[in-house]
Design a protein that fits this description.
Layout lengths: L1 E6 L7 H15 L3 E6 L14 H4 L7 H9 L4 E9 L2 E2 L1 H14 L8 E7 L4 H13 L13 E3 L3 H5 L2 H26 L25
Parallel strand pairs: 1-2, 1-3, 3-5, 5-6
Antiparallel strand pairs: 3-4
The structure holds flavin mononucleotide.
């Protein structure tokens, strides 16, 4: 079983990484394979809603979005981490998440996920809310912890001193490992995954109306 931890910060080893690192170590101690995927510090660019991904499941603009989607198909769980910028996820991470989930949401269905926010002072709860919405529109079981998933600090060193934040991170790791093991056991026991209902795409107009641009 493998979990990918996405670092959405422009800092490869900053505060967000400090939280993800704690989760990663916990997952590894639980026998789960891990990989950290850093989205980098180059401009990611947002989704333009062209619909080009519908046929391929990949974004027409490529880059880190498609690199990640290629890896996501084979992973069993995900942690998405972002620093707080103006009380929301940083712009690069927001663009990354829009394009990843618009192009490849099927890669996440029924796979456990958690979101982590890192900040100096305030805005982590709104950031976590924002990130969690990608998970809950994609049928991902959301892994929770003993506090909302946040770490405080301006540097990784400071964040590692956030004892409650680090405990929260470790409990995300323990809870995700437990859920993954439960799902594996359920599959072995023959519990079937829900097939899902056919799409209804109505724009609040009519009943089952499907319109394309
Ligand atoms: C553009 C920008 C906006 C920020 N907005 C906030 C904010 O709203 N609240 C806050 O506590 N920190 C804010 N910060 C500080 C970062 O959240 C903080 O430095 C965090 O530790 C960075 O994490 P990182 O090292 O993983 O990038 C902001 C930083 C930048 C660059």
């Amino acid at each position: 079983m493998k979990v990918i931890l996405v670092n959405g910060s422009p800092h490869e080893h900053g505060t967000t990484w400090a939280g993800l690192d704690e989760i990663e170590k916990t997952l590894q101690a639980e026998g789960i394979e891990t990989e950290v995927f850093w989205i980098g510090n180059k401009a990611v660019g947002g989704c333009v809603g062209c619909g080009g991904c519908e046929a391929t499941g990949r974004c027409v603009f490529g880059g880190v979005v498609n690199e990640f989607l290629d890896k996501a198909e084979g992973a069993d769980g995900f942690v998405f981490g972002a620093p707080v910028h103006y009380a929301g996820p940083n712009g690069n991470m927001k663009s990354f998440m829009d394009r990843v989930f618009y192009a490849g949401s099927s890669s996440f269905r029924l796979k456990p996920g958690a979101c982590v926010a890192a900040c100096r002072r305030a805005g982590v709860v709104t950031t976590m809310d924002d990130l969690n919405k990608y998970l809950t529109i994609s049928e991902m079981p959301v892994v929770s912890s003993t506090y909302w998933n946040m770490v405080f600090g301006f540097t990784a060193e400071e964040a590692k001193q956030d004892a409650e934040g680090m405990r929260t991170m470790r409990n995300i790791g323990h809870n995700m490992a437990y859920l993954l093991k439960c799902m594996e056991a359920a599959e072995k026991a023959g519990v079937e995954r829900p097939a899902g209902e056919p799409a209804a795409w109505t724009h609040f107009i009519g009943n089952g109306t499907v319109s394309k641009r």
